[in-house]
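Q: what does this look like with zinc ion bound?
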Amino acid sequence: MLELTRELLRVDTVNPPGNERAAAELALGYAKDAGLDGALAPLGDGRANLHLVLPGTGARAPLMYCGHFDTVPPGTAAWTRPPHAAEVDEDGVLWGRGAVDMKGGVAAMIVGLATLARAEVALPGDLHFLGTVGEEVDCAGARAALDRGALEGVANLVIAEPTDLALVVAHKGALFLEFTTYGRAAHGAMPEQGINAIDQMMCLLERLRDLKAGLPGHAVLGDATLNVGTIEGGSVVNIVPDRCTARVDLRTVPGVDHRALLAGIGRLLDELAATRAGFQARMTVTGDYPAVGTDLDEPLVRAAGHVLGTVLGRPPEIRGVSYFSDGSLLQPATGVPTLLCGPGDPNLAHQTDERVDVRALEHAAEIFTMLPTVLEAPEAA
Ligand SMILES: [Zn+2]
């Protein structure tokens, strides 16, 4: 486990340019030595996804493990230990860019497959590992895997992003909206002769807050939130403003359909136009990222909770997160239950002196070995 992680850390896969192919080849070599089937899926210069399969009996639908090979750059600050030397210190801590995000998690998943292959365990369903390129920039590898049909038939997905070995079952979605209200300019001494676009905007924002308050919450992520990030309007103090623009960041939880929500906001604008004198407004969607979440009752969550409890000797911690991952793309596209769980402190990801406890790597390898043996996946189609 430790040696595979160290070898992966010594391959520079800083993205851009990525150069993930070298890491994918190294992992493929390790997997083949354990008797696993696998292949690279080339994606341009020096880049390739890796797809490994440990065939099961075929009774149950496949489980897929997933992780990315690329890392962010080491940054400009000096590191205590060099970022691509993969040194282990006297406290049993492994240092390097990617130790946490996420070559440790990638290695743990591959070790899981290799261990099961060597032990000739007959799993009920196929176990896949998908190693991707480009997650830190544009999720190009996850996108290509979807296009290629690599996730077809997969019933459960686990991504080894760093979570401190907590179970991350959800992250919020975001809608970035720009609203403009229009009015009619007039002398500030006779506001009744104009239409104040700022007043109209204040009314609109108030009603948006009411609408947000009516949105459903989530057991792990809590409530939807609304932040008015910018507002501009008016020119001088003694003129009625004829235009106001506000940018709103609306964060949603799984189960809230953005199209339905946008339709609701459209109806709100219509209602204000019908009931409020001179109300005129326009909405533009500048960002739309769906929330993803997995039900706590899913067999995948229960199996992972059981395995974490066994390996770590304490009840599993269940969390939501704010960051995006390949799962942000893969889960909406496939609709399958998805978990994030991996070794390392997520706060050390993308930081100078990124490092991970070797014990956490070992625990992760045990977890990814055990999980497919206890998961009750749906029957194979
Ligand atoms: Zn990552």
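The domain at 173-289 is CATH 3.30.70.360 (Alpha-Beta Plaits). The first helix runs from residue 2 to 10.
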